Amino acid sequence: MYVDKTAEEGAARSSLGKRFAKRLVDQRESGLFLLIVVLFAVMAVARPSTFFTTGNLFNILKQVSFVTIVAVAQTLVMVSGGIDLSVGFSLGLSGVMLAFFIQLGMHPVLAVTIGIIASVLSGLLNGVVITKLRLPPFIVTLGVAKIVRGVMYVVTRGYPIPVRTPFIIWTGNGYAGPIPVPLIFMLAIVVVGGYLLTQTVFGNRIKAIGGNETAARLSGVNIDLNKIVIYTLTGLLCGIAGVMMVGRVNAGNPNSGLNFDLDSIAATIIGGTSLAGGEGTVLGTLLGAVLLGLIANGLVLLNVSMYWQTIVAGVIIIGVCALDALTSARRK
Amino acid sequence: MSESRVLRMSGITKHFPGVVALRDVSFDLFKGEVHGLVGENGAGKSTLMKILGGVYRPDGGSIEVMDMSAHIHSPSDSLAMGISVIYQEYNLVPTLSIAENIFLGKELTRGIPKRMNRPEMKARAAECVARLGLNDISCDTLVRNLSVAQQQLVEIGKALFNNASILVMDEPTSVLSQKESESLFKLIDVLKQDGISIIFISHRLEEVISLSDRITVLRDGELVCTLDNTLKTVKKDDLIQHMVGRVLQDYFPPHEHAPTDETLLKVSGLTSKGNFRDVSFSLRAGEILGFYGLVGSGRTEIVKAVSGLLPYESGTVDIRGKTVKLRTVKDARFQGIALCPEDRKNEGLVLSMSLADNVCMPSLDSLHVGGTIIKSRRNELVDKYVQKLQIRPALPQRMVKEFSGGNQQKAVIAKWLACNPSIFIFDEPTRGIDVGAKSEIYRLIEELAKQGVAIILVSSELMEILGMCDRVMVVHEGRIAGEFDRAEATEKSLMKAAAGF
Predict the structure, then answer these.
(1) Cα-based distances in Å from A285 to A196, A226, A255
(2) From the candidates B90, B95, B139, B154, which should be mutated to test the interface with A, based on the most A CB atoms within 10 A?
């Protein structure tokens, strides 16, 4: 550029502090982070002996890991303007398939591979039907969810299939030093997902498709191909989470992904992803999932009944989004 | 202007169910030329350009780009041939930055794993938009934070970046202010010097005449003529005549209605905080009362308050001598007030519903029995008003978004006319529609006044106010700045009052 660079940089530096402060106030993530810190402080004071222990904190993160992995996928889908209601059953599918084949005597590594492939295929099915039949994602993924659920019941006749393979159990229940293995998987996926969305051409196109599909098409973006990749990738992440889930509950259970659809959407929306598509961050989704996990854990430790937890979670979803709508309206 | 032909469209024909949108239309374009394209709404301008842009496939005819036969099957085919169409609806991604929009579809990358080369994209985008006079804004800015004029520049920048040699601008000035339009015209001149050929579509004929080297006129899907305008010698009246196919001697209908003595509406001291203060006026049956003022002066807010759309803090509204409190549109409708709003696409119509559904929407109360809509009654009503307003094509089941702007506006009017209002408020009824539809709407307003309907006409077009109204209220910064009789109202007096002198 022809502009006097040093002058520009000087000006940028002097306002850096101001810009940082403005960014902190404007960004959904910082608000969420603050909320988490407050909740954390409250719990640390209210239940110092049970809440504020390494064991409990890792336990929260471990529990959050599964839904976060699925929610990262959900974030990509929702930023592209879609929605995936089949994630929970796609997660269950890989677990059920791998358990079924291990039970038949197949080598566990091969069984895990088949399980993950099954989930990938269900994602691919979503993508292909959505783009080629031009149907709304809501309908297609709802239908695929039912189909996948049915397949699982056919395979298992409704009963969980026990799995005792050590490395599979390690993925869902193991520890690397003090750190739970699922947490490591989750962090890796968050980093990769965040990189994908913010740094790559693919991520940019996801945002473009969600922001204005016509504009993206007129710019020569292959909409169908990108959407198919997004849903297939979602299948892959659900498949991985499904294997870990088998490790956690020691069985391939057709019901293990129950509620993951709505929980992943909740975490994504709390994290600031727009329902209309076009914007959203993986970091926000992570914070959304952590917030929900923290609340669930806190309510248990405060001896609040499980049923009330669900009600509180509902209020939080609406509250956070209402607060955001109010503040962003004021900013305008 | 050099004589090399960059585009030739010959014998283009396009049918839509029930209508022929284009019949054997030919069009060509030289290098470095601005070619104006005019015609009434529905004449086929947009369809022709959508064929060029690859959105529609023609049913017949051929296209040659740079003397080579061109098969345009998709927008990307068109882009690859150096054709960029800037449609009326902006084709940018609001949630991406300027740089990301310009590079969308051909992003620059670096490193392993491959990632977006943001600094490089930003620098090159900045260079590109600086050329267009958009140099005081960072290319990291999200497009949704830009003004319409700025968004338009980004689109032009994007087109230039695609090495466009043919640029189509469909109504680029309809959303711009006077000043913004002028800088766009300067830019068009620069682009022309660079050898870029521009197809310029606009309803503002003065613009077309002052910019274009040649002007092509379409009417009802057919080519009327292509006029040479190198010396800017084409007359506006001639253009209009070609467009409508007859001499439009009088743009405005003869002033035949006469206000009666019966005061229908009396507004006293109406105030809405932040919108307008202490507004008083009265309106008689059979009278056309104009509201003139600059955009943002509070005209729209005043009529919205009178229609129950905007709450007011103090003041009274009397209808037929009785003070009423208008809180909702239903209240207003019950009092016989109808408002044809300023923004027909967002406020006037449900674009995704059919013409029939839109027209009968406010009248549904009289069309149902126990909640079930009586089809025959509904169709009768719809047919009556489609015919009365001559909405074209007369296909009630067609989605309203597929109609041209002028016919959409007629649909809004039909919808309220069906409620038999005694006070009809028109807010900018002729914005963005062609001369033919304009004069039809003027005639209709005159006709209503003759039947004794009291009419408020809000407009920022002086000629419209002067040509139609019995009396004019001028609004300036939320206050009534003056009241003028037909005899007193002149261009000068109204403009002075509107400017606050």
Answers:
(1) 14, 21, 24
(2) B95
Q: Which fold has domain B5-244?
A: Rossmann fold (3.40.50)
> pLDDT tens-digit profile of B116-171?
898 999 999 988 888 787 778 888 899 988 887 888 888 888 888 888 899 999 88
Across the interface, of B75, B100, B107, the residue whose CB is closest to A218 is: B75
Token couple for B13: 């024909």
Kindly determine whether residue A212 and residue B94, on different chains, have CB atoms separated by under 8 Å: yes
To which residue do tokens 């609004």 refer? B475
Same fold, B5-244 and B274-336+454-501: yes
Interface touch A211/B115, C-beta < 8 Å? no
* Domain ranges within chain A, ordered by starting residue: 51-331
Please report, for chain B, the start and end positions of each structural domain, with discontinuous segments joined by +: 5-244, 274-336+454-501
Q: Is A204 in contact with B96 (Cβ distance < 8 A)?
A: yes
Q: How far is CA B344 from CA A97, B330, B350, B454, B471, in A?
A: 56, 19, 9, 21, 26
Of A203, A217, A278, the CB nearest to B95: A278
Q: Residues B118, B72: contact at Cβ < 8 Å?
A: no
Q: Work out the pLDDT band at B494, boundaries 50, 70, 90.
A: confident
Amino acid letter, B91: N
Whole-angstrom distance, CA of residue A116 vs CA of residue A241: 9
Rounded Cα distance, B145 and A328, in Å: 13
| Rounded Cα gap, residues B497 and B482, in angstroms | 6
| ipTM of the complex model | 0.79
CB contact (8 A) between residue A211 and residue B95: yes
Q: Does domain A51-331 have CATH number 1.10.3470?
A: yes
The reply to whether CATH 3.10.420.10 applies to domain B274-336+454-501 is: no
* B26, containing H or E segment: strand B19-30
- The pTM of this model reads 0.75
**Alpha-carbon gap: B282 to the closest alpha carbon of chain A (Å):** 37
Q: What is the pLDDT of residues B271-292, one digit of tens each?
A: 998 899 999 999 999 999 999 9
